[in-house]
Structure to design on (237 residues):
């Protein structure tokens, strides 16, 4: 809804269209923009190709791509993590980003739309910058996503396509439910400023942590101080 609130036509994607048909209807009613609900398993090459083709057919070239699909893992010592589950997590959190982004570039019209502002935004995590315990599969996937974001930004620089990532913090969603009233928990809508800063800005190969942007806003600081290069040393244990 954040992009639609700024006047963008949007394609909303989930594994089943029933999950997003209601949201697409709300977007059309509230913002008056086009909103297409599409069913797609983003780990399936065939389904991704079909969804991207349909989105481009309905809306025209895709100018902003937000890679938001992902899942977590059980909190276990790494030696007790299930290997099959680890592979499944990597397929969704990492491989699907490459699949969807590549398809949007080639079949979604993004490469050809040189007269338009084009952005790819990957939803990452602080776990991609810090070695947390008990969640090695998830953390590994987000470290991989940060590297992927930096590589994409470098490769697409000459094409004028910007690639950045957002670490939204603890967001209460159906896939990642958080305890009510827990300190630091935010709503999906609360990352609006981070998303728009990247979508409307000229930076590429950077990341933002939404909590840092909130802190800057609270003390009247410059939001740009929160934008950091992905390749800056920031690994913590």
């Amino acid at each position: 809804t954040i992009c639609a609130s700024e006047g963008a036509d949007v394609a909303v994607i989930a594994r089943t269209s029933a999950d997003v048909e209601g949201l697409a209807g709300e977007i059309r009613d509230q913002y008056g923009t086009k909103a297409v609900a599409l069913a797609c398993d983003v780990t399936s090459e065939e389904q991704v190709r079909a969804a991207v083709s349909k989105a481009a057919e309905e809306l025209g070239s895709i100018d902003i791509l937000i890679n938001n699909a992902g899942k977590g893992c059980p909190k276990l010592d790494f030696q007790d993590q299930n290997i099959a589950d680890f592979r499944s997590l990597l397929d969704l959190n990492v491989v699907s980003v490459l699949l969807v982004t590549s398809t949007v570039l080639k079949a979604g019209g993004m490469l050809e739309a040189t007269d338009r502002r084009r952005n790819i935004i990957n939803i990452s995590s602080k776990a991609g910058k810090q070695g947390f315990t008990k969640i090695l599969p998830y953390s590994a996937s987000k470290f991989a996503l940060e590297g992927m974001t930096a590589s994409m930004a470098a490769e697409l620089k000459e094409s004028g396509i910007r690639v950045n990532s957002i670490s939204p913090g603890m967001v209460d969603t159906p896939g990642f439910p958080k305890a009510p009233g827990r300190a630091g928990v935010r709503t999906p809508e609360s990352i609006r400023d981070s998303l728009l800063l990247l979508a409307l800005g000229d930076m590429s190969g950077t990341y933002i942590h939404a909590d840092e942007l909130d802190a800057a806003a609270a003390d009247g600081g410059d939001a740009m101080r929160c934008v950091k290069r992905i390749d800056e040393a920031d690994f913590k244990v």
Remarks:
- The chain has a mean pLDDT of 87.
- The helical segments are 2-5, 18-31, 45-59, 83-107, 136-156, 192-200, 210-218.
- The domain at 66-229 is CATH 3.40.50.720 (Rossmann fold).
- Strands lie at 10-14, 35-39, 64-67, 118-123, 161-167, 170-171, 185-186, 206-209, 228-229.
